[in-house]
User: Fold NAD-dependent epimerase/dehydratase family protein from Natronogracilivirga saccharolytica.
Amino acid sequence: NILITGSAGQLGVELAARLREIHGTERVIATDIRERNRIEEAGPFEILDVLDREQLAGAVSKHNIGTIYHLAAILSANGEKQIGKTWQLNMDGLLNVLDLGRNDENNPAGSQNAVSHIFWPSSIAVFGPDADREMTPQNSPLNPTTVYGISKVAGEQWCAYYHRRFGVDVRSLRYPGLIGYKSEPGGGTTDYAVDMLQAAAGGNAYTCPLGSHTRLPMMYMDDAVKAALDLMAAPEELVDVRTSYNVSAMSFTPDDMAGVIRRHVPDFDVDYAPDSRDAIAASWPDSIDDGKARQDWNWKPDFDLGAMVKHILDQQALSSEA
Ligand code: VAH
Assistant:
């Protein structure tokens, strides 16, 4: 069976729904530190604190878990307001989950209950101002400016260490900003793109917390879920990168997005009030080279900016008519 931590988060809600479509509702145990999010899709849900090793171990043995999608984390913008908690949750939470993949006495669930596969999302937040801004290579200097980014750099190294030393099959993706319409973003720097689309769909104006020309790598949620499932389904020998794979689908500025939205909502009004999130975004790349993921396990995104905006606004129109 499959366990998801952070299942009420922006990625978790959609990953849980997709995994349930594929494997059956009862085989996917959705967990989070708080009650469920917007989508009250039927299926097993439990409150779980990833800092509680015994609670984690209990869930793994009780539900016969073979695969864990470990998504619970504090994101970049929120993380800067609570640096100790962000480091503790992002780091200790990951280490607690990695130990559940070990075949020795350090596995709190017991070596006989070792999980066979773990997915853990990293982020373009691992890159800092000294990495190439355009087409940032898979192997770049990693000097992040946020606590979240520091926790992702350290987490990638821990994943590689647990794979190398203990044989834990943990796989990871450096996600760009993720954009969906079925779940709320969770305090990141790229949340503006979701909020701008929601404002447009509701016929409202939008004040953007990033500068109009701040370019960022982005991805539609359907592609983000596809990338995780494709990576997890790849034969082990093809997964050559055991820190985390660069992946991306598009790059755009808030001004680019507003322009595409106006194809559908002609009078959509945006103004700009850059805040601390713009400084974080400015430290990240403008675009990402994901050639290694394309080469190793045939990564390919389906949505570009135009297709994504059209798809989301069409869906929002459908749901508002409903
Ligand atoms: C954040 N949405 O903004 C996340 C992601 C690349 C951005 O890591 O923190």
In short: The first strand starts at residue 2 and ends at 5. Residues 18 and 115 are 21 Å apart (CA to CA). The mean pLDDT is 96. The pocket of (3R)-3-hydroxy-L-norvaline is lined by residues 75-76, 123-125, 148, 175-178, 188-190 (CB under 6 Å).
